[in-house]
Amino acid sequence: MKTINFATTNKEKLQIAQIVCLEANISIVPITLEIDEIQGEDPEIIVRDKALRAYEQFGKPIVVSDDTWDIKALKGFPGAYMKSVNQWFTPQDFLRLMDGVKDREVTLHQYLAYTDGKVMKIFKNDLHGKIINEPRGRNDKSPNATVIELDSDNGNTIAEVFEQGPEAVAARYKNRPDVWHELAKWYSKTNK
């Protein structure tokens, strides 16, 4: 079985990576690093810098992830700042922002970056959804997960999907495109 070192402290992101990559016969090794992430408007620059910093600390091939969130009616807010916004906002704060707004469309832009110190490969995937009218489910770390339904989650919020347990999360990723599918396909071909 091949292995990928994945720098993350996010349990949900780790679970997704493990589920998707296991089907490709790839084991995910979680690596905990303190990475001082740059801030900005260009998600590719952010994830590329994050991968370089992770590689400098770890010294071995590594993958990092970064998500940006685009709320269409709010002109792309919060973008790359969702992690910070989730520390400040409650689910009700997200709903107040959308009060009276008809277009509740949201897009999750998923990014992964792999580097071995020589090769840098960026993967991207978009998932579409909407902000609902009332929070459902529980996620203390990511309040946005209680107010966002992704189109591929059969009417469940992100929080509700993870509350259903590992089997439901695994089923979610069998039939839905995810950035990890792209990375696993590439990694399987290039690391024989």
Question: Could you characterize the architecture of this molecule?
Answer:
- By secondary structure, the protein is α+β, with helices and mostly antiparallel strands.
- Helix 1 crosses helix 6.
- The protein has helices spanning 11-23, 43-58, 82-88, 91-97, 158-163, 166-174, 179-190; strands spanning 2-7, 26-31, 62-71, 78-79, 105-115, 120-131, 148-150.
- It is built from 7 helices and 7 strands.
- It has a 5-stranded antiparallel β-sheet.
- Helices cover 36% and strands 26% of the residues.
- It has one domain (2-190): Maf protein (Alpha-Beta Complex).
- A hairpin with a 6-residue loop joins strand 3 (62-71) and strand 4 (78-79).
Topology:
Layout: E1 2-7, H1 11-23, E2 26-31, H2 43-58, E3 62-71, E4 78-79, H3 82-88, H4 91-97, E5 105-115, E6 120-131, E7 148-150, H5 158-163, H6 166-174, H7 179-190
Helix pairs in contact: 1-6
Shape: globular
Beta-strand level of the residues, as a percent range?
A: 25-35%
Q: In total, how many beta strands?
A: 7
CATH-defined architecture: Alpha-Beta Complex
| Main CATH class | Alpha Beta
Count up the helices: 7
Structural class: alpha+beta
Give the proportion of residues in helices.
25-40%
